[in-house]
Amino acid sequence: MTKVRCGWCVGDSLYESYHDNEWGVPLHDEQLLFEFLVLETFQAGLSWITILRKRENFRLAFDNFDYKIIAQYDEGKKEELLQNAGIIRNKLKVNAAITNAQNFIKIQEEFGSFDTYIWSFVNGIPIKNSWKHHKENPATTEISDKISKDLKKRGFKFVGSTVMYAFMQAIGMVNDHAVDCFRYNEV
């Protein structure tokens, strides 16, 4: 019997694997939260599949998304990243990754963890929507607006409401699997 999946991932094995194993699963690991934050900010204006196809290159280029190392990147490292054809070579986004790593650490210092901070926006409980089709998923919500505004106030870059809603979906703060998707009740 064929698994019913959300329509956005069907037909591409990388997309299907990401959908089946990661998307919408509640995530609380600091390193992975930062990884998704970086990937979502680089995705701004691009398709998610473009980012997924370059994910391993990003891992290598960005020291396995170790935010403590990234926060210390200097001009030489920035230039190295901008010459790396395996990632998205956007100067503003590279700078944002560094700035966001520094601010990620500040949030950890203030709240004990980034996990505590980000999940507080949903009181630690994932929002479970009931969409019949993936095209019903909103691009933004009041919560993503609130997160975006707060992160920007804290100095984060490329964290608009649309990016933050995609981040919420990726880390399982919101379950936007279609109701007939096999993952809907699993996450």
Summarize the model shown.
52% of the residues lie in helices and 2% in strands. It has 187 residues and is mainly alpha-helical. It comes from Aquimarina gracilis.
Helix and strand topology:
Blueprint: H1 13-21, H2 30-43, H3 48-61, H4 67-70, H5 75-82, H6 91-111, H7 114-119, E1 127-128, H8 142-153, H9 161-170, E2 174-175
Parallel strand pairs: 1-2
EC number: 3.2.2.20
Pfam family, one: Adenine_glyco
Protein name: DNA-3-methyladenine glycosylase I
- What is the overall silhouette? globular
CATH fold name, please? Endonuclease III, domain 1
DSSP E strands, number: 2
Percent of residues in beta strands: under 5%
Unreliable runs, pLDDT <50, ≥5 residues?
none
Order of helices and strands: HHHHHHHEHHE
- What is the gyration radius calculated from CA atoms? 16 Å
- Shape-level CATH architecture: Orthogonal Bundle
Please tell me about this protein's structure.
With 187 residues, this protein is mainly alpha-helical. The protein has a single domain, classed as Hypothetical protein, domain 2 (Endonuclease III, domain 1), CATH 1.10.340.30. 52% of the residues lie in helices and 2% in strands. It has nine helices and two strands; from the N terminus they run H-H-H-H-H-H-H-E-H-H-E. It has helices spanning 13-21, 30-43, 48-61, 67-70, 75-82, 91-111, 114-119, 142-153, 161-170; strands spanning 127-128, 174-175. It has a two-stranded parallel sheet with strand order 1-2. Helix 2 (30-43) crosses helix 3 (48-61). The radius of gyration is 16 Å and the shape is globular. It starts with 12 loop residues before the first helix and ends in a 12-residue tail after the last strand. 33% of the residues are buried. The model has no long low-confidence stretch (mean pLDDT 96). InterPro entries: Adenine_glyco (IPR005019), DNA-3mA_glycosylase (IPR052891), DNA_glycosylase (IPR011257), Tag (IPR004597). This is DNA-3-methyladenine glycosylase I. Its EC number is 3.2.2.20. GO terms for molecular function: DNA-3-methyladenine glycosylase activity. Keywords: Glycosidase, Hydrolase.
